[in-house]
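Much of what follows relies on a compact textual record of a protein's fold. A record is reproduced here so that you can trace the correspondence yourselves:

. . .
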Amino acid sequence: MIDPKCPDTITPVIELLEGKWTLLILRDLFNGLHRFGELRRSLHPISPKTLTDRLRLLEENHIVTRTIFSEVPLHVEYELTDKGRRLQPIFAAMREWAEQPCPTAHTAELQEAQA
C-alpha cells in the first residue's frame, strides 16, 4: 500500500519512460550496447530526431551513457548505466504480468463457486 502522505516519486519515473520509443530503446539496450544506427534500424520507423531526443533524455537522467569514438568514421555507442540496468527487473515483472491470462467473467464465477 502506498502512503498518501508520501511524495509521489513514481510520477517522474512514468514521465521519463512514457512513450513507445523510450521503452523500446531500453529493451534493445538491455541486450547490450548499441550504436546509433543499430538502434535506428531496430526501431524502424523511428526518426533520427526522435531517437536522438529520447537518448538525450535518458542520458540526462543517468539511465544511458554515450561514448564517442573519434576514429574514422566517427561512431557513438550507447549503453545502460547501473541505474538503467536496475530497471530490468521492473521490465521483467511487467512482462510477466502482461503474459498472465486475463480472467473472464466465467472464470471468476467458477472460482467463486469453488470457494
Q: What stands out?
A: The beta strands are 34-35, 64-69, 75-80. The chain has a mean pLDDT of 89.
